Amino acid sequence: VFADGTLLDTGDAASRAAFSRSHAALLSRLGELAQRTRDNAELAERIRRKFAIKNTTGYSLNALVDFTDPFDILQHLMIGSEGTLGFISQVTYRTVPEYADKASALLLFPDIEVASRAVIRMKTTPVSAVEMMDRASLRSVEDKPGMPDYIRMLGPTATALLVETRAESPDALRDNIAAISAAVADLETLQPVAFTDIPAEFDRFWNIRKGLFPSIGGMRPVGTTVIIEDVAFPIHRLAEATVDLQRLFAEYGYNEAITFGHALEGNLHFVITPDLGRPAEVDRYRRFMDAIVHLVVEKYDGSLKAEHGTGRNMAPFVEVEWGAQGYALMRAIKGIFDPEELLNPGVILNDDPDVHLKNLKPLPPADAIVDTCMECGFCERMCPSAGMTFTPRQRIVGIREISRLAAAGAEAEKVSLAASYDYQGIDTCAACGLCATACPVGIETGILTKKLRESRHNASGRRVASLVAEHYGRAMWATRQGLGMAEWAQRTLGADTLEAITGSLRRLSRDHIPAWSRALPVKVSFTPREKANVDRRPQVVYLPSCVSRTMGPACDDPGTESLPGK
Fold it and tell me: Assuming Cys at both sites, which of 203, 306, 322, 354 could form a disulfide with 232, CB separation 3.0 to 4.6 Å?
């Protein structure tokens, strides 16, 4: 979807034909820009060289030299454009086979230099993945449950490579393992090279890799922010580049930093945890980022962004990496798609050299239950209230902002926000704990919700809650009868009449009497019955919740069977 509202489906011939008629000028300008780029031999060669390694800094300029069809150019420019050229509403992926036969090995080397030599040798072998982890990375997870004991015994310079290979058959897998093992046979390792095709064993290796980012996020001091960056270097210079990165961490006092990454592509991630609520820390971060740019771009001619988005954090440095000609191309692309700069302004391209230091969001302490939250959003897909009110991440962001306003003495703003938060953040939380199952640091936002609910209740409210808890069966029976009466009223009076009556009562009571809704469930009514084929496997024991034991389908629902009766 483009800035003028036009929808293009690049996979549909009719849509492409219509776009060719309505946006002939746009396609023509793209074609001309690509032709000029290909005619500029020096610029075209630089683009090809920059994309010989992973690169997402700025726009995908390789589209201008890799394709001649304007639709292909357009499509590949849109990918990774971060909403600055248009909105991508649907994507069709080309998939690759997921082979059942796979094996992994955790290779341990005495230092980064030997590990990097191993990566270069494995590049031509049938490896599916090679993940590098420096000693600081391994140290951050060595005390976690399930970690191999030998991780704790490694020396200060030890470096690990997590290698995986996949194949179409067990015989092919054995051949892959033999080829990979032979490639590194004469290199010094801290343990013998040993692949395993047992899922329980290689899952333990991959849990090390998966635990790196969450571990540092959970260990960081309260109030600090987790920043993860990713850069890429020519693979033959990976060892010295990694050593230089670690030197910068020490020079700027980021002693907690860890380095890991996709070694086969020369792609390194690093994580730091600055306190962006303090001006001195922001200045340290500024100086560190300047040093990173110098190291990656000027010393190694690498990529400041290998796979993450450019965003605003790297926007001031896009021209530094690409030079005046490459940057001018990006400006031209933006002008073709979005001449009025309406779409995501300031992202990817930004004239402010300090934009990466502005509008920073500190993470003030709010409650020990959620202070380790990195606001990554992994929890959101698990939350029942997502799309209706707040997600767990939004609940945490809200309570942090309330805490920040309280600390700043902004009482009026705090009270106003807290009043809105009651329904959005507290009343509608299911407190089910599902968020914790996806949280990298194991936060259960529902525990915070219960705590906030408890603090909000007065003595009489707690007495009522205790009374209900002590007579829970009767309370559930009374709830079912109430739902049954509401169903009888709907069937007797009709939905429109009942809606009007209860709406009037609600207004007269100043919202103390709840309004009836057509979506109100009826009472659960079911008779346990014998299931056919009871010995069929697999079998489960279903323990319905109090809601499922009380509330059935709505009166007008096409389905009439209650959940426990299914």
Answer: 306
Question: 212-219 vs 199-210: helix axis angle to the nearest 10?
Answer: 40
Residue appearing with tokens 């290998």 = 306
User: Nearest to residue 68, comparing CAs of 31, 93, 96, 43?
Assistant: 31
- Taking the alpha carbons of 343, 344, 345, 347 in that order, is the dihedral positive or negative? negative
Nearest by Cα to 137 from 55, 197, 219, 194: 219
Q: Could you tell me the two tokens for 310?
A: 């450019």
Instruction: Return the number of other C-beta atoms located less than 10 Å from residue 355's C-beta.
Output: 17
**Burial environment of residue 72 by CB neighbours within 10 A (0 to 12, 13 to 18, 19 or more):** middle
Cα separations (Å) of 365 from 208, 259, 378, 382, 403? Answer: 29, 27, 21, 25, 7
The Cα 289–Cα 298 span in angstroms is 13
Dump pLDDT digits (tens) for 492-549. 999 899 989 998 999 999 888 888 888 888 888 766 555 555 566 677 787 888 888 8
- pLDDT of 230-277, one tens digit each? 999 999 999 899 989 999 999 999 988 889 999 999 999 999 999 988
In angstroms, rounded to a whole number, what is the distance separating the alpha carbons of residues 17 and 14?
A: 5
Per-residue three-class SS string for 150-185: HHHHCCCCCEEEEEEEEECCHHHHHHHHHHHHHHCC
Query: Which 3 state secondary structure label does DSSP give 186?
Result: coil
- Cβ proximity of 93 and 358 under 8 Å: no
Half-sphere exposure of 521 (CA within 13 A, CB side): 17
pTM, rounded to two decimals: 0.80
Q: Would you state the structure tokens that stand for residue 203, as one six-digit string?
A: 């899952």
